[in-house]
Specification:
Length: 222
């Protein structure tokens, strides 16, 4: 535990030092490009906020299984702005005579950052679908009434009825999503480890919040 805390403290200290240096370089570059006073201090705040916001949104979309191309693009833009300021203030650029192109880039950064932050803030999030809703969606639709053509065809059949072949009892009536199947098996293993007895399909079905008609389906996956 002590080693883990020491590792976290080292990471935090390193992040604070790196952030302070990058913050100072961005301030110096903005001030050299003609953005004096409070505006020179606002530039590093804008770059760092866009960097953090893009990283968090990129991670959220990756965990949800969605493409994260947009957040990744804005993360690279903010990273390029921060890295460019660090390199430019390392003696490769004369801060007393900043090129006009760099002045244009620094002056246009607020509009770029505002546009990127707006897109990141209004990116739709994927709602979490509860297991009960998934089970309701997987229930089969009720059989529709026969059409007129089907009724005419049935009337032409012989009057002696034939019993349909019974469906095998072991086949599940409804297929469950893979995530729900894993949850069923996890509950069954938990019940077996706690009581030493096989799990009751009806009990597992009730814990998942599934309708009674899904008991046979749950039993097929135990």
């Amino acid at each position: 535990m002590r080693a883990r805390l020491a590792h976290v403290d080292a990471v935090i200290i390193q992040a604070v030092i790196a952030g302070a240096l990058s913050f100072s370089h961005l301030h110096d570059l903005a001030e050299a490009a003609g953005q004096g006073g409070w505006k020179a201090w606002a530039y590093p705040v804008s770059v760092d906020l866009l960097l953090v916001a893009a990283w968090r949104r990129m991670r959220e979309q990756q965990r949800a299984g969605q493409p994260a191309g947009g957040p990744r693009l804005w993360f690279l833009v903010a990273l390029a702005a921060s890295l460019g300021a660090n390199v430019a203030t390392a003696g490769l650029l004369d801060l007393d005579d900043v090129p006009a192109s760099l002045r244009v880039v620094v002056a246009g950064w607020p509009a770029v950052a505002f546009f990127g932050g707006t897109l990141l803030a209004h990116t739709p999030r994927t709602p979490q679908v509860p297991a009960s809703s998934v089970a309701e969606e997987t229930e089969p639709d009720p059989p529709s009434a026969p059409t007129a053509v089907e009724e005419t065809h049935l009337d032409a059949l012989p009057a002696t009825p034939t019993d349909p072949a019974p469906a095998p009892a072991s086949a599940p009536a409804v297929s469950l999503p893979p995530a729900l199947v894993d949850r069923v098996r996890a509950l069954a293993e938990e019940h077996r480890a706690t009581t030493g007895q096989p799990a009751d399909p009806d009990t597992v079905r009730a814990r998942l919040g599934l309708p009674p008609s899904m008991t046979a389906t749950v039993a097929a996956h135990l």
